[in-house]
Design a protein that fits this description.
The protein is of the alpha/beta class. It folds into two domains: 252 residues, 3-Layer(aba) Sandwich (Aspartate Aminotransferase, domain 2), CATH 3.40.640.10; 133 residues, Aspartate Aminotransferase, domain 1 (Alpha-Beta Complex). Helix 8 links the parallel strand 5 and strand 6. Helix 3 packs parallel to helix 10. The longest helix is centred in the last third of the chain and has 20 residues. It is globular. The protein starts with 31 loop residues before the first helix and ends with a helix. The N terminus is likely disordered.
Amino acid sequence: MSGSDDRGRPFVAGPESGRRDTLPVGTAGIGSTQAVHAGVPPLRPNHALAPAIAQTATYKFRDTAELVRYMQGGDPDPHREEYGRYGNPTVQELEQRMAALEGTEESLAFASGMSAITTLLLGLTKAGDHVVLFDDCYRRTRQFVTTVLSRFGVEHTLVPATDLKALDQAITPKTRVVLSESPSNPYNHCLDLEELAAVCRRHGRVRSVVDATFATPYNCRPAAFGVDLVVHSATKYLGGHNDVMGGVVSGPRQLISLLRETRGVLGGVLDPHAAFLLLRGLRTLGVRMERQNRSAQAVAMALRAHSKIERVFYAGLVEHPSYPVASRQLRGAGGIVSFIVQGGEQAASRLVDHCQLATLASSLGGVETLIEQPRFMSYFELDEAGLRQVGIDPALVRLAVGIEDTDDIVSDLLHALDYV
Protein backbone atom coordinates (compact mmCIF):
# COMPACT_ATOMS: atom_id res chain seq x y z
CA MET A 1 0.00 0.00 0.00
CA SER A 2 1.18 3.50 -0.65
CA GLY A 3 2.01 5.93 2.12
CA SER A 4 2.85 4.77 5.64
CA ASP A 5 1.35 2.38 8.12
CA ASP A 6 0.01 3.59 11.44
CA ARG A 7 3.51 3.54 12.92
CA GLY A 8 4.81 5.86 10.23
CA ARG A 9 6.83 3.23 8.38
CA PRO A 10 6.77 2.87 4.57
CA PHE A 11 3.99 0.45 3.67
CA VAL A 12 4.38 -1.70 0.54
CA ALA A 13 2.06 -4.57 -0.35
CA GLY A 14 3.43 -8.07 -0.22
CA PRO A 15 6.92 -9.25 0.68
CA GLU A 16 8.64 -6.81 -1.67
CA SER A 17 10.48 -3.79 -0.35
CA GLY A 18 11.54 -0.72 -2.26
CA ARG A 19 9.80 0.99 -5.15
CA ARG A 20 6.13 0.24 -5.67
CA ASP A 21 6.47 0.33 -9.43
CA THR A 22 8.71 -2.74 -9.27
CA LEU A 23 5.92 -4.83 -7.75
CA PRO A 24 4.90 -7.71 -10.02
CA VAL A 25 1.85 -6.73 -12.03
CA GLY A 26 -0.97 -9.03 -11.01
CA THR A 27 -0.06 -9.39 -7.34
CA ALA A 28 -0.51 -5.73 -6.46
CA GLY A 29 -2.26 -4.17 -9.43
CA ILE A 30 -1.18 -2.15 -12.41
CA GLY A 31 0.99 0.96 -12.52
CA SER A 32 0.38 4.33 -14.12
CA THR A 33 2.19 3.25 -17.29
CA GLN A 34 -0.28 0.41 -17.78
CA ALA A 35 -3.19 2.71 -16.94
CA VAL A 36 -2.14 5.02 -19.77
CA HIS A 37 -1.02 2.49 -22.37
CA ALA A 38 -2.32 -1.05 -21.74
CA GLY A 39 -4.79 -2.24 -24.35
CA VAL A 40 -4.53 0.91 -26.48
CA PRO A 41 -4.83 0.01 -30.19
CA PRO A 42 -1.63 0.63 -32.17
CA LEU A 43 -3.45 2.79 -34.71
CA ARG A 44 -6.74 4.62 -34.34
CA PRO A 45 -8.78 6.00 -37.28
CA ASN A 46 -7.13 9.03 -38.88
CA HIS A 47 -4.03 8.45 -36.72
CA ALA A 48 -5.79 10.15 -33.78
CA LEU A 49 -4.10 10.00 -30.39
CA ALA A 50 -7.41 10.04 -28.49
CA PRO A 51 -10.21 7.51 -29.09
CA ALA A 52 -13.02 8.42 -31.47
CA ILE A 53 -16.67 8.46 -30.44
CA ALA A 54 -18.57 6.18 -32.82
CA GLN A 55 -21.94 7.86 -32.32
CA THR A 56 -24.07 5.43 -34.28
CA ALA A 57 -26.97 3.13 -33.50
CA THR A 58 -26.58 0.87 -36.51
CA TYR A 59 -24.03 -0.23 -39.13
CA LYS A 60 -24.33 -0.61 -42.88
CA PHE A 61 -23.43 -3.51 -45.18
CA ARG A 62 -22.37 -3.21 -48.80
CA ASP A 63 -24.64 -6.01 -49.96
CA THR A 64 -26.47 -9.16 -48.89
CA ALA A 65 -23.37 -11.30 -49.41
CA GLU A 66 -21.43 -9.23 -46.86
CA LEU A 67 -24.33 -9.46 -44.39
CA VAL A 68 -24.53 -13.24 -44.78
CA ARG A 69 -20.76 -13.55 -44.41
CA TYR A 70 -20.94 -11.53 -41.18
CA MET A 71 -23.82 -13.61 -39.79
CA GLN A 72 -21.88 -16.79 -40.53
CA GLY A 73 -18.83 -15.46 -38.68
CA GLY A 74 -16.76 -15.11 -41.83
CA ASP A 75 -16.18 -11.35 -41.75
CA PRO A 76 -12.40 -10.70 -41.45
CA ASP A 77 -12.94 -7.48 -39.47
CA PRO A 78 -13.07 -8.42 -35.76
CA HIS A 79 -14.55 -5.02 -34.94
CA ARG A 80 -17.47 -5.31 -37.35
CA GLU A 81 -20.84 -4.72 -35.74
CA GLU A 82 -24.45 -5.02 -36.85
CA TYR A 83 -26.44 -3.00 -34.31
CA GLY A 84 -25.61 -0.69 -31.43
CA ARG A 85 -27.10 -2.89 -28.74
CA TYR A 86 -24.59 -5.61 -29.59
CA GLY A 87 -21.47 -3.49 -29.82
CA ASN A 88 -19.75 -0.24 -30.71
CA PRO A 89 -16.12 0.56 -31.66
CA THR A 90 -15.64 3.03 -28.79
CA VAL A 91 -17.17 0.59 -26.32
CA GLN A 92 -15.00 -2.18 -27.76
CA GLU A 93 -11.86 -0.16 -27.10
CA LEU A 94 -12.91 0.33 -23.49
CA GLU A 95 -13.55 -3.40 -23.17
CA GLN A 96 -10.16 -4.26 -24.65
CA ARG A 97 -8.44 -1.80 -22.32
CA MET A 98 -10.19 -3.18 -19.25
CA ALA A 99 -9.26 -6.75 -20.18
CA ALA A 100 -5.64 -5.66 -20.46
CA LEU A 101 -5.75 -3.83 -17.13
CA GLU A 102 -7.44 -6.72 -15.32
CA GLY A 103 -5.26 -9.38 -16.97
CA THR A 104 -8.27 -11.30 -18.33
CA GLU A 105 -9.13 -12.63 -21.77
CA GLU A 106 -12.07 -10.27 -22.30
CA SER A 107 -14.21 -7.60 -20.68
CA LEU A 108 -17.77 -6.43 -21.24
CA ALA A 109 -19.11 -2.91 -20.62
CA PHE A 110 -22.57 -1.99 -19.33
CA ALA A 111 -24.66 1.11 -18.76
CA SER A 112 -24.08 0.99 -14.98
CA GLY A 113 -22.50 -1.12 -12.29
CA MET A 114 -25.89 -2.55 -11.37
CA SER A 115 -26.55 -3.43 -15.00
CA ALA A 116 -23.25 -5.34 -14.97
CA ILE A 117 -24.04 -7.33 -11.83
CA THR A 118 -27.69 -8.04 -12.64
CA THR A 119 -26.86 -9.18 -16.19
CA LEU A 120 -24.11 -11.40 -14.79
CA LEU A 121 -26.45 -13.05 -12.29
CA LEU A 122 -29.25 -13.50 -14.80
CA GLY A 123 -26.80 -14.92 -17.31
CA LEU A 124 -25.23 -17.45 -14.93
CA THR A 125 -28.29 -18.71 -13.03
CA LYS A 126 -31.66 -20.31 -13.72
CA ALA A 127 -34.63 -21.51 -11.68
CA GLY A 128 -33.51 -24.01 -9.06
CA ASP A 129 -29.97 -22.65 -8.78
CA HIS A 130 -28.41 -21.22 -5.65
CA VAL A 131 -26.30 -18.10 -5.01
CA VAL A 132 -24.11 -17.38 -1.99
CA LEU A 133 -23.18 -13.82 -1.09
CA PHE A 134 -21.45 -12.19 1.84
CA ASP A 135 -23.67 -10.07 4.05
CA ASP A 136 -21.59 -6.93 3.46
CA CYS A 137 -22.33 -6.83 -0.26
CA TYR A 138 -23.64 -3.61 -1.77
CA ARG A 139 -27.26 -3.18 -0.65
CA ARG A 140 -28.70 -3.06 -4.17
CA THR A 141 -26.83 -6.23 -5.12
CA ARG A 142 -28.19 -7.94 -2.04
CA GLN A 143 -31.65 -6.57 -2.79
CA PHE A 144 -31.54 -7.93 -6.35
CA VAL A 145 -30.53 -11.40 -5.16
CA THR A 146 -33.00 -11.57 -2.28
CA THR A 147 -36.06 -9.99 -3.92
CA VAL A 148 -35.73 -10.26 -7.71
CA LEU A 149 -33.77 -13.45 -8.37
CA SER A 150 -35.83 -15.21 -5.72
CA ARG A 151 -38.98 -14.50 -7.76
CA PHE A 152 -37.44 -16.50 -10.60
CA GLY A 153 -36.71 -19.49 -8.38
CA VAL A 154 -33.05 -18.77 -7.60
CA GLU A 155 -32.29 -19.44 -3.94
CA HIS A 156 -29.65 -17.64 -1.89
CA THR A 157 -27.66 -17.81 1.32
CA LEU A 158 -26.02 -14.92 3.16
CA VAL A 159 -22.77 -15.65 5.02
CA PRO A 160 -20.82 -13.36 7.39
CA ALA A 161 -18.27 -11.02 5.86
CA THR A 162 -14.92 -12.67 4.99
CA ASP A 163 -15.97 -15.97 6.64
CA LEU A 164 -14.66 -18.51 4.14
CA LYS A 165 -15.48 -21.46 6.39
CA ALA A 166 -19.11 -20.37 6.45
CA LEU A 167 -18.94 -19.96 2.69
CA ASP A 168 -17.61 -23.50 2.25
CA GLN A 169 -20.47 -24.85 4.36
CA ALA A 170 -23.10 -22.76 2.55
CA ILE A 171 -22.27 -24.06 -0.94
CA THR A 172 -24.61 -26.80 -2.15
CA PRO A 173 -24.75 -28.89 -5.33
CA LYS A 174 -27.13 -26.24 -6.68
CA THR A 175 -24.76 -23.32 -6.07
CA ARG A 176 -23.64 -21.60 -9.26
CA VAL A 177 -22.29 -18.22 -8.12
CA VAL A 178 -20.46 -16.90 -5.07
CA LEU A 179 -20.63 -13.12 -4.98
CA SER A 180 -18.37 -10.92 -2.89
CA GLU A 181 -16.75 -7.51 -2.61
CA SER A 182 -13.16 -6.76 -1.70
CA PRO A 183 -12.72 -4.25 -0.15
CA SER A 184 -16.37 -4.09 0.90
CA ASN A 185 -18.71 -1.15 1.37
CA PRO A 186 -18.67 0.52 3.86
CA TYR A 187 -16.42 -1.37 6.32
CA ASN A 188 -13.50 -2.19 4.01
CA HIS A 189 -13.46 -5.92 4.68
CA CYS A 190 -10.97 -7.70 2.39
CA LEU A 191 -11.32 -11.33 1.35
CA ASP A 192 -8.47 -13.75 0.90
CA LEU A 193 -9.07 -13.95 -2.85
CA GLU A 194 -6.84 -16.96 -3.44
CA GLU A 195 -8.71 -18.97 -0.82
CA LEU A 196 -12.06 -17.74 -2.12
CA ALA A 197 -11.20 -19.03 -5.59
CA ALA A 198 -9.95 -22.32 -4.14
CA VAL A 199 -13.17 -22.88 -2.18
CA CYS A 200 -15.25 -22.34 -5.31
CA ARG A 201 -13.07 -24.65 -7.41
CA ARG A 202 -13.39 -27.45 -4.85
CA HIS A 203 -17.15 -27.41 -5.39
CA GLY A 204 -17.00 -27.77 -9.17
CA ARG A 205 -19.41 -25.59 -11.18
CA VAL A 206 -19.29 -22.62 -8.82
CA ARG A 207 -18.18 -19.28 -10.27
CA SER A 208 -16.37 -16.84 -8.00
CA VAL A 209 -17.34 -13.21 -8.61
CA VAL A 210 -15.64 -10.25 -6.93
CA ASP A 211 -16.86 -6.68 -7.06
CA ALA A 212 -13.52 -4.85 -7.01
CA THR A 213 -14.90 -1.32 -7.39
CA PHE A 214 -13.14 -0.10 -4.23
CA ALA A 215 -9.81 -1.65 -5.22
CA THR A 216 -9.60 -0.81 -8.94
CA PRO A 217 -7.00 -2.59 -11.10
CA TYR A 218 -4.42 -0.19 -9.65
CA ASN A 219 -4.65 -1.71 -6.17
CA CYS A 220 -5.55 -5.31 -7.00
CA ARG A 221 -6.34 -7.63 -9.91
CA PRO A 222 -8.54 -10.43 -8.50
CA ALA A 223 -8.19 -12.61 -11.60
CA ALA A 224 -4.49 -13.03 -10.76
CA PHE A 225 -5.60 -14.84 -7.60
CA GLY A 226 -7.87 -17.22 -9.51
CA VAL A 227 -11.17 -15.34 -9.31
CA ASP A 228 -13.44 -16.13 -12.28
CA LEU A 229 -15.18 -12.79 -12.86
CA VAL A 230 -14.31 -9.25 -11.74
CA VAL A 231 -16.98 -6.56 -11.60
CA HIS A 232 -16.59 -2.78 -11.43
CA SER A 233 -18.98 0.08 -11.08
CA ALA A 234 -17.03 2.15 -13.61
CA THR A 235 -19.00 5.17 -12.39
CA LYS A 236 -16.58 5.33 -9.46
CA TYR A 237 -12.78 5.26 -9.74
CA LEU A 238 -12.50 4.15 -13.36
CA GLY A 239 -14.37 7.24 -14.55
CA GLY A 240 -13.01 9.25 -11.67
CA HIS A 241 -14.84 12.55 -12.19
CA ASN A 242 -18.46 11.92 -11.11
CA ASP A 243 -19.69 12.70 -14.63
CA VAL A 244 -20.37 9.30 -16.22
CA MET A 245 -22.04 6.01 -15.35
CA GLY A 246 -20.94 2.56 -16.43
CA GLY A 247 -20.11 -0.98 -15.38
CA VAL A 248 -17.59 -3.61 -16.45
CA VAL A 249 -17.26 -7.38 -16.07
CA SER A 250 -13.90 -9.00 -16.86
CA GLY A 251 -13.07 -12.69 -17.12
CA PRO A 252 -12.47 -15.69 -19.41
CA ARG A 253 -13.72 -15.57 -23.00
CA GLN A 254 -16.25 -18.38 -22.50
CA LEU A 255 -18.06 -16.63 -19.66
CA ILE A 256 -17.87 -13.16 -21.21
CA SER A 257 -19.35 -14.52 -24.45
CA LEU A 258 -22.28 -15.91 -22.48
CA LEU A 259 -22.79 -12.57 -20.75
CA ARG A 260 -22.52 -10.72 -24.07
CA GLU A 261 -25.47 -12.73 -25.35
CA THR A 262 -27.42 -11.92 -22.19
CA ARG A 263 -26.57 -8.22 -22.47
CA GLY A 264 -27.85 -8.21 -26.04
CA VAL A 265 -31.19 -9.47 -24.79
CA LEU A 266 -31.48 -7.30 -21.68
CA GLY A 267 -30.15 -4.19 -23.43
CA GLY A 268 -27.90 -2.69 -20.73
CA VAL A 269 -25.23 -1.61 -23.21
CA LEU A 270 -22.92 1.34 -22.54
CA ASP A 271 -23.31 4.31 -24.87
CA PRO A 272 -20.25 5.45 -26.90
CA HIS A 273 -19.89 8.86 -25.30
CA ALA A 274 -19.86 7.29 -21.84
CA ALA A 275 -17.24 4.84 -23.11
CA PHE A 276 -15.13 7.77 -24.31
CA LEU A 277 -15.33 9.41 -20.88
CA LEU A 278 -14.35 6.17 -19.17
CA LEU A 279 -11.39 5.74 -21.54
CA ARG A 280 -10.31 9.24 -20.59
CA GLY A 281 -10.70 8.46 -16.91
CA LEU A 282 -8.57 5.31 -17.15
CA ARG A 283 -5.58 7.33 -18.31
CA THR A 284 -5.36 9.12 -14.97
CA LEU A 285 -6.37 6.14 -12.81
CA GLY A 286 -2.84 5.52 -11.54
CA VAL A 287 -2.08 9.06 -10.40
CA ARG A 288 -5.52 9.50 -8.86
CA MET A 289 -5.38 6.23 -6.93
CA GLU A 290 -1.87 6.88 -5.70
CA ARG A 291 -3.02 10.21 -4.23
CA GLN A 292 -6.25 8.76 -2.83
CA ASN A 293 -4.44 5.81 -1.24
CA ARG A 294 -1.99 8.15 0.45
CA SER A 295 -4.58 10.70 1.58
CA ALA A 296 -7.02 8.08 2.89
CA GLN A 297 -4.24 6.50 4.95
CA ALA A 298 -3.45 9.91 6.47
CA VAL A 299 -7.13 10.60 7.14
CA ALA A 300 -7.59 7.21 8.82
CA MET A 301 -4.58 7.77 11.07
CA ALA A 302 -5.74 11.26 12.04
CA LEU A 303 -9.27 10.09 12.84
CA ARG A 304 -8.23 7.08 14.90
CA ALA A 305 -6.18 9.42 17.11
CA HIS A 306 -9.11 11.80 17.75
CA SER A 307 -11.02 11.59 21.02
CA LYS A 308 -14.40 12.11 19.35
CA ILE A 309 -14.02 9.15 16.98
CA GLU A 310 -15.11 5.80 18.37
CA ARG A 311 -13.74 3.55 15.63
CA VAL A 312 -12.18 3.79 12.17
CA PHE A 313 -12.69 1.15 9.45
CA TYR A 314 -9.74 1.26 7.06
CA ALA A 315 -7.78 -1.79 5.96
CA GLY A 316 -4.51 0.18 6.06
CA LEU A 317 -4.69 0.31 9.88
CA VAL A 318 -3.18 -2.64 11.74
CA GLU A 319 -6.22 -3.00 14.02
CA HIS A 320 -8.56 -3.57 11.08
CA PRO A 321 -9.36 -7.30 10.91
CA SER A 322 -8.53 -7.38 7.20
CA TYR A 323 -5.11 -5.75 7.58
CA PRO A 324 -3.13 -9.01 7.15
CA VAL A 325 -5.00 -9.89 3.94
CA ALA A 326 -4.89 -6.33 2.63
CA SER A 327 -1.14 -6.06 3.19
CA ARG A 328 -0.60 -9.22 1.13
CA GLN A 329 -2.81 -8.57 -1.86
CA LEU A 330 -3.40 -4.82 -2.18
CA ARG A 331 -1.10 -2.09 -3.40
CA GLY A 332 -3.07 0.40 -1.31
CA ALA A 333 -6.08 0.28 1.00
CA GLY A 334 -8.08 2.58 -1.26
CA GLY A 335 -9.86 5.89 -0.89
CA ILE A 336 -12.78 5.03 1.41
CA VAL A 337 -12.54 5.69 5.15
CA SER A 338 -15.53 4.83 7.33
CA PHE A 339 -15.76 5.78 10.99
CA ILE A 340 -18.16 5.99 13.92
CA VAL A 341 -18.55 9.35 15.67
CA GLN A 342 -18.97 9.37 19.43
CA GLY A 343 -22.33 10.79 20.47
CA GLY A 344 -24.54 8.90 18.03
CA GLU A 345 -26.50 9.84 14.94
CA GLN A 346 -26.88 13.56 15.66
CA ALA A 347 -23.18 13.98 16.43
CA ALA A 348 -22.31 12.34 13.12
CA SER A 349 -24.74 14.67 11.34
CA ARG A 350 -23.08 17.71 12.93
CA LEU A 351 -19.73 16.52 11.64
CA VAL A 352 -21.10 16.05 8.12
CA ASP A 353 -22.87 19.40 8.12
CA HIS A 354 -19.83 21.35 9.28
CA CYS A 355 -17.44 20.02 6.65
CA GLN A 356 -16.55 22.76 4.20
CA LEU A 357 -14.38 20.81 1.75
CA ALA A 358 -16.03 17.40 1.87
CA THR A 359 -19.33 17.51 -0.02
CA LEU A 360 -22.49 15.76 1.17
CA ALA A 361 -23.31 13.51 -1.77
CA SER A 362 -23.69 9.86 -2.67
CA SER A 363 -21.20 7.85 -4.73
CA LEU A 364 -17.41 7.77 -4.48
CA GLY A 365 -14.22 7.51 -6.50
CA GLY A 366 -14.20 10.98 -8.04
CA VAL A 367 -11.74 13.82 -7.70
CA GLU A 368 -13.91 15.55 -5.08
CA THR A 369 -14.01 14.36 -1.47
CA LEU A 370 -17.56 13.23 -0.63
CA ILE A 371 -19.07 12.49 2.76
CA GLU A 372 -22.30 10.83 3.88
CA GLN A 373 -24.06 8.98 6.68
CA PRO A 374 -25.12 5.60 5.26
CA ARG A 375 -27.99 5.65 7.75
CA PHE A 376 -29.58 8.47 5.71
CA MET A 377 -28.10 8.10 2.23
CA SER A 378 -28.48 4.35 1.74
CA TYR A 379 -30.69 3.02 4.53
CA PHE A 380 -33.14 5.84 5.18
CA GLU A 381 -36.15 3.52 5.12
CA LEU A 382 -34.85 1.33 7.97
CA ASP A 383 -35.60 1.77 11.66
CA GLU A 384 -33.05 1.05 14.39
CA ALA A 385 -33.81 -2.67 14.36
CA GLY A 386 -33.42 -2.79 10.60
CA LEU A 387 -30.11 -0.93 10.79
CA ARG A 388 -28.81 -3.41 13.35
CA GLN A 389 -29.84 -6.27 11.09
CA VAL A 390 -27.73 -4.97 8.19
CA GLY A 391 -24.90 -3.89 10.47
CA ILE A 392 -25.13 -0.12 10.02
CA ASP A 393 -24.44 2.09 13.03
CA PRO A 394 -26.50 5.34 12.93
CA ALA A 395 -23.31 7.25 13.80
CA LEU A 396 -21.35 5.72 10.91
CA VAL A 397 -19.86 8.19 8.42
CA ARG A 398 -18.34 7.21 5.07
CA LEU A 399 -15.72 9.48 3.58
CA ALA A 400 -14.78 9.05 -0.09
CA VAL A 401 -11.40 10.77 -0.30
CA GLY A 402 -10.76 12.85 -3.40
CA ILE A 403 -7.53 14.22 -4.85
CA GLU A 404 -7.43 17.52 -2.96
CA ASP A 405 -4.30 18.22 -0.91
CA THR A 406 -4.09 15.71 1.91
CA ASP A 407 -3.60 18.34 4.62
CA ASP A 408 -6.72 20.18 3.47
CA ILE A 409 -8.87 17.06 3.73
CA VAL A 410 -7.57 16.27 7.20
CA SER A 411 -7.96 19.88 8.37
CA ASP A 412 -11.55 19.97 7.11
CA LEU A 413 -12.47 16.93 9.18
CA LEU A 414 -10.66 18.14 12.29
CA HIS A 415 -12.41 21.50 12.01
CA ALA A 416 -15.81 19.82 11.65
CA LEU A 417 -15.08 17.66 14.70
CA ASP A 418 -14.89 20.84 16.80
CA TYR A 419 -18.67 21.06 16.42
CA VAL A 420 -19.32 17.53 17.62
